[in-house]
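Objective 1.3, modelling of assemblies. Example input:
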Amino acid sequence: MTVSAADRPVGVDIQESEQNRAVIEAIEADNADATVRHMPGMIRVQAPGRLVIKRESVEERMGREWETHEFQLAIISYFGHIKEWDDDEIVIAWDH
Amino acid sequence: MQFELRTQVIEPQRKTFQHLIDRYGDRPASRYEEGSIDIQATANYHYRPLWNPEMEIYSPDYSDLKLADAYSFTDPRQFYYAPYVTSRADMHEAFGSTLDYLEKRGMFDRLPASWSSVVQDIVLPLRHYEAAGQMIFSHAARFGWGTTITQCCAYAAFDRIGNAQILSRAGISFGGGTADSLDTAKTTWLEDADWQGLRKHTEELLVTRDWGRAIVALDVTDRLLYGLMYTHLDEAALLGGAGSYSLVAQHLSGWFTDQRRWMDALYKAWGADPEHGTANAAVVADVVESTLATASAALAPIAAKLDALVDCGAAQALSDAVEATRAAYTTLGMTKEA
Amino acid sequence: MTIAPKAPRKLSMKARYSALTRDLDWDPSYVPAEEMFPYTTFEGITIHDWSKWEDPFRLTVDAYAKYQAEKDKRLYAVLDGFAQSQGHLSLTDASYLNAMKLFLQGVSPLEYQAHRNFAYLARHLNGPGPRFASLCQSLDEIRHAQTEIHTLSNYNKYYSGFHSYLHMHDRVWYLSVPKSFFDDALSAGPFEFLIAIGFSFEYLLTNLLFVPFMSGASFNGDLPTMTFGFSAQSDESRHMTLGLEAIKFLLEQDEKNVPLVQHWINKWFWRGYRVTALVAQMLDYMLPRKVMSWKEAFELYFEQQMMNGLFQDLAYYGITPPLHVDKAIQEKEYLSHQAYWILYQFSHAAAFTTSIPTEEHMDWLTEQYPDTFPVYRTLWEKERKNLENGGRHFIRGLPQLCQVCQIPMGFTEADEPFVQCQRESIYEGERYNFCSDGCKYIFDHEPVKFRQAWLPVHQIYQGNCGAADLPGVLQWYKMQPGDGGEYLGNVDNENWKTWHDMAETTGGH
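Predicted structure (tokens):
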């Protein structure tokens, strides 16, 4: 059965820690369809088709500057394809 | 279940791993030792490489330079990943601060015109030389024999691309926040007649299959090039009102001091080897002799260009560097006259 | 931590990255291109334009060093704190460490191998983009090897089985499974290595391999392993990206690459999957506190994410799911039971211990595997009777190994739980045996390579392992008393009880 790229889930696993709380909250706020699952020591955020992490949203919640490279301190794993990783946002989605 | 266990100290059964106990006795081992000594496999490889069925996956025979015991060499800096990367984070942060300082004060714009040409035509093209340095050391990190050596080579490879990026970041600043100066410098590296000797020499180093000979040849070239470009020229810049160049150059000469520490220790280990010492000295001498000839000839037109621009005694400095380099290898017993 | 605010940049992240990495490259004109890149033609892969390689991470040396230093600062603080407070005593049980013994003996040396071969790619790929990504990965991999060694070093001081992990990795029978896997990758060309390790291992199977270990650590009081694991996984996300870029790049460059890539996916899926048999039994049998079953992990990390996600994406290029994947899906119901049963019977010749599952443990297994475990439960109940009669079951003979994956031949036909699956091929008059269709497929494509395999059992018979008898071979392996065999009553088990009794009598709760 083929499911279109817009519907197949993509997701990211993030280490559960105080430092990463703002990141997780920002992802939840920016991705209306996202679901969050708690697993040992980590949190999985999943959404159909596309997931975005926005610098501005993280900074708002963190109260300081945050560059997207810093996401590497939080991420454990992901599924999907990293389509974009620039100064302002990180986008995970399937291509085809 | 929570026990209050801190009241009892439990005696360890052993202080470290067996291979370190066998080598150094039953004493606690450092993290450097645990992370470096004997890590590479030395036996029972399953398959011959498809890309070279004559050889094993790892072999001392990928170079003419050999150690009877690969671990007679250790890194005097005792770098395993964590201290290495921490030291480089500090290095790049310090360079970032220098660059901020230079940018905020518009220091590159205030360079005397002749020094501006030095940066554009003499310094920035060197980022390609550094990039080649990465590839040469990465080759050694794959084909070297023994983790203490290959680990140093792996970090040196990363250092070289780091140096290339330091020069590139300086170039972006120098180019007013654009990559224009880098583009111009690339054309110089590729097309300027004065640079073709160094480019040819660099390309030949890149295709040297023997990793040991390749890193020695690169090191000989580095001694001349770093002596000229980042030490001698640094002093000339201070005298010539080009303080901004001096501030950039100190990061590279500082790096080279660090690089010397392990390279010099490696020469000592090669020379002192009970089985291969004499043969190693002859191989190094051979590489030193031919590289000094090629590299000094390759650098001569660049030194001449420097003298034409800022009259800083570069030609003399280059020939001094050749003599100093030969003398350094003679002290090690690794030149033909030694 | 404070990460210094950055100064406003004029170049975008993408343009800056390009200036700092790929723009450093040039086409040589004084030496021939085939001498500059001697290894990228023999595999038959066609690349028209290396500049089409995309690296979304756009990490430069300064940012890499900054974030990696920060990760290691956090990690080593945890390791030091755990050692200082004798944290090992708050594990669920000393038997938990069997999982970590396997990890150090079997996996850490692979991280080191990856370090060396990504250095090969960092020199020998033609494109500056993938060279730089490989360079970063090469450094990450030595980080992983070393942080694993440093994490588990503390356990080595108090527990058996860790002390000679390097020596054992290159010699002991069950460790030739992971060793031959990685030797296979290192002896392949650079493109096959990219698909083998970069794609199949790092993208397809990495979560299945690592996340269970790390979650197991988290559930069993092993804070240092959980910390290094999650810290390593954060690098892994870069590696996954490299792997995915690699496959898309090869597929997009030329249609002729598609069948080659498909074959490598077939081969390396099965090769990697066979190595995960060790993970399967670890998850279902070695953890005192269970996290999830192998079956559940396989469904989550492989079937959902890869079969229903990734392979639908790759279908666009004409790539199909790996050959024999259906067999792996069938096997999820019994892989762990068969793998542990093999290890249980041979653990007297291993550097970890095994024990019969408790009733409670078997109830859990029955719950997880209602259709298949009851059959294996009868095996264990028979063994329980042996134990009551004072006879712990060990196999004294030497097993036949699969020529490709090197696991003792003990897997069965899918629908016949007691019929051993055995396949064979004849090559130049010699017969070779395989545990599965997947392994036979691999051999039949590369008989010249796979007949070279250093099979531990053959080597013993040929007299290359120190002695002809088991005690002599174990000595050659550098096994120490207490390393293997039955857990109950073994030195780790006895010490554990003593240490905890001590704690209770001196002011415990």
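The radius of gyration of chain C is 24 Å.
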